[in-house]
Amino acid sequence: MATLYTYAESNIRKTWLYLTFFLFLIIGIGWLFSHIYQEQAILWFAVIFSILTSISSYWYSDKIVLAMAKAKPIEKEDNPELYRIVENLCIAAGLSLPKIYIIEETQPNAFATGRDAKHAVVAVTRGLLNKLEKVELEGVLGHELSHIGNKDMLLQTIVVILVGIVAMLSNFFLRISFWGRGRRNSRGSGGNILALLGIVAAILAPIAAALIQLAVSRKREFLADASGALLTRYPEGLARALEKISADPSPLIIANNSTAHLFIASPFRGRQSKSWFTKLFLTHPPVEERIKALREMSI
Questions:
Q1: Three-state DSSP class for 257?
Q2: Which CDD domains match (predicted)?
Q3: Is 284 known as a binding-site position?
Q4: H-helix or E-strand containing 112?
Q5: Who wins on pLDDT, 172 or 72?
Q6: Beta bridge pairs of residue 123
Q7: Which residue in the list 144, 236, 289, 296 is annotated as catalytic?
Q8: Is 261 assigned to a binding site?
Q9: Residues 6 or more apart in contact with residue 179 via CB below 8 angstroms
Q10: Is 119 annotated as a binding residue?
Q11: Sign of CA dihedral 267, 127, 66, 139
C-alpha cells in the first residue's frame, strides 16, 4: 500500500517530468522555426511577450479571480470556527494565515489563489460551509492550503508562460507562412519539406502544450490531495468531502472556463465521459480516481 509520502513524491516527479518535456518541446519548436526563417527575433519576441503578459496576470490574478467569483472577505468574528480550522492547519503547515473569502453560492466548492504564501487567499462557498461536516471541511481546507504551500500558483504561471510562448511561436510561423516568406527563404525540395514540417508543428504544438498544461494541473490536484491529507492526518475526511461535492446537483452560477481549474472539483455539473481521450482534456482528475487514491493510502 502506498503511503501519502510516496504518493506525493511520485506526483512531484511526474510534474517535473512534464515540465522538462515542455521545455524540450519549446526548444525544438524554436529551433525549427528559427532555422526555417533564419530569424532569432521571432523566438525572442515570443518569449519576452509571453513572460511580460503572464507576469502581469500573475501579479493581479487574485483580484481578478475574486471579482469574477463575487467573493467577499470575512473577518474572524464573522465565522470563528472557519478561522480556527484555517489557523490550525496553517500552524501545522508552517504557512501565514491567508485572507478568507466567502462566495454566496449553494454548490459546495472552494479554491485558493494569490501570487505567493504571504498574499494568498482561500475562498469557500456558502454551500461548502453548510453541507460538510467539520472533518470534511478540514480536508478541503487542507487541500487548498497545500496548493499554497506547494507553490502551485507560481508553477501554473510558469506553465502558462510556456504555453504562451508555444502559441506565439506557432501563430507567428503560420502568419509568415501564409504571407509566403517561407517559400522565398526555403528553396529546394529539402527546404520545402522543412517548411511543411514547420507548418505541421505550428498546428500541433499548441495542442500538445495545452495537453501538458492540463496534465500538470491534474498532477498538482493529486499532490494537493496527498499533502492536504498529511496536514489533517485523516485522508477519509477529504475523500468524503469529494464525494459530497461531486454528488451535489447545485449549479455554480459564477462558474466559467477561465477559473474552473482553480476549484477543488469542477464547478460544472453533468455527466462526463470516462474515456481516456476525454480525460486528456480535463482540468481535474476524475473524482472517483482521487477518492480511490486517498482511501488506498496510509499515513
A1: coil
A2: M48B_Htpx_like
A3: no
A4: strand 110-113
A5: 72
A6: 101, 111
A7: 144
A8: no
A9: none
A10: no
A11: negative
